[in-house]
Amino acid sequence: MNSGKVLLGLLAGFTAGTLLGMLFASSNCDTENKNSFWCKDKDEDNTDEKLNDFIEDITEKFADLKKDIIVEQAKAK
User: Fold this and answer.
1) Triad 28, 30, 31: Cα angle to 5°
2) Residue 9 pLDDT more than 80?
3) Which pLDDT score, from 0 to 100, does residue 77 have?
4) pLDDT, tens only, 37-76
């Protein structure tokens, strides 16, 4: 058998197994598979809040930096 055919067969089997596993995976994350990759994290909302806080902090820092640059340009004239 050609090594290319063996590799293609392994790849096809891996792909089929992955797709079937995703298809038949339990969608109930409260029971046995809490640590599953497909279960949403309970801290998802908390992560969104942290991201929004980070973006607001960066925006404020850029606004302060812009004000400082304008002040320095006014002093230079």
Assistant:
1) 85
2) yes
3) 73
4) 556 555 555 777 888 889 999 999 999 999 988 888 888 8
Per-residue buried b or exposed e for 34-68, using 16+ beta carbons within 10 Å of the residue's own CB: eeeeeeeeeeeeeeeeeeeeeeeeeeeeeeeeeee
| Tally of domains within the chain | 1
Handedness of CA 41, 42, 48, 53 (dihedral sign): negative
Does 14 reside within a domain?
Answer: yes
Q: What is the pTM for the complete model shown?
A: 0.41
34 belongs to a structural domain? no
Judge whether 33 lies within some domain. no
Structural domain containing residue 50: 3-25+42-76
